[in-house]
Design goal:
31% of the residues lie in helices and 16% in strands.
Length: 319
């Protein structure tokens, strides 16, 4: 299913992301944040599934990762596999490439962490790597959203976000998970409201290891929903919001564009300025057409209110 079979050292932490050229810089910054917060960066074997990244950006990534003691390799997926899969403006074909991860590695590689590009890592991923999956083939965090799960037919607490996952590659190969996910995606459009996240959930049907919420702090935690009230009951919410291990900038409002309404947008700039892209200007994209002036005003008020809460707790926000 691919034209590259990768290997990794026995004691290495295998981390995988996929990107086209448009998301290459955010992915680059994400990996800088990963290594800056790693006690032993040399343990990390980073793999990028290449969806058309320019040679210049690949060289920049190699330079920044090697300067921090890490290692990166680029993998290829046969584009034809996903040629008929639907895409959107902010979701291109490489968003599906994670489905193929077990097919890209030698059978000696038994576990991998997959990370989306729109993340900032604030903790050492050695701890995430050591999480026990028990009998499950995948570990993830519950998806924080009001309605994404509805089409799936699953309970909200059984529907995970696929932006941060630990993959048991042995079980995925044994159970032929990649082919099951691809088949589900194409045969059950009525159950799909996202790119491949609904397909993953349709295959696993609630059978996944639950990771603590702070390993995927999603933007939905800032909104007042019944789901958030449930999560507040066990203390998971407090740790995720105030001391997130991974910040996930879900939705169109990304920290590398203007405007951004995320209270922790500065964390992206913190690591951007540690990278070779420190002088790269943010992209001015404006707001979606459905965003009225009142809605933009409310978004800004909400952002500033949360930033004030962070500062009141002594949390240093990057300007």
């Amino acid at each position: 299913m691919s034209n590259s079979i990768a290997t990794a050292g026995q004691d290495k932490i295998v981390v995988v992301a996929s990107s086209d050229d448009n998301y290459a810089i955010p992915m680059h910054v994400m990996f800088v944040s990963l290594l800056e917060n790693a006690a032993r960066p040399d343990r990390f074997e980073i793999f990028v599934i290449d969806g058309g990244i320019s040679e210049k950006k690949k060289n920049n990534l190699q330079n920044d990762i090697s300067a921090r003691g890490g290692n990166v390799a680029f993998l290829q997926v046969d584009d034809g596999i996903y040629a008929d899969f639907p895409t959107q403006k902010h979701i291109s074909a490489p968003a599906y490439y994670r489905i193929s991860i077990p097919e890209l590695f030698n059978e000696t590689v038994k576990r991998a962490i997959y990370l989306d590009c729109d993340l900032i890592i604030k903790a050492d991923l050695e701890e995430l790597w050591s999480q026990d999956l028990g009998p499950y083939a995948i570990a993830a965090v519950e998806n924080i959203a009001g309605s994404t799960y509805l089409k799936s037919g699953l309970a909200q607490s059984d529907y995970f976000n696929s932006g941060v996952i630990i993959i048991d590659l042995v079980k995925w190969r044994e159970q032929n998970i990649p082919e099951k996910v691809r088949t589900f995606k194409m045969e059950h459009p009525e159950l799909i409201s996202t790119n491949d996240q609904c397909a993953f959930n349709g295959v696993f049907r609630g059978e996944w290891a639950r990771l603590p919420l702070h390993w995927n702090m999603q933007s939905g935690l800032y909104r007042n929903r019944r789901q958030v009230e449930r999560l507040k009951q066990n203390g998971a919410y407090e740790k995720a919001v105030w001391t997130p291990s991974i910040i996930h900038y879900i939705g169109w409002s990304k920290p590398w564009v203007i405007p951004c309404f995320h209270p922790l947008e500065g964390e992206y700039r913190r690591y951007l300025e540690m990278s070779v892209y420190r002088h790269e200007p943010l992209e001015e994209v404006g707001t979606p057409v459905e965003y009225t002036a009142i809605k933009v005003f409310r978004k800004n008020v909400q952002k500033k209110r949360w930033q004030k809460k962070y500062r009141s707790k002594g949390i240093n926000l990057y300007p």
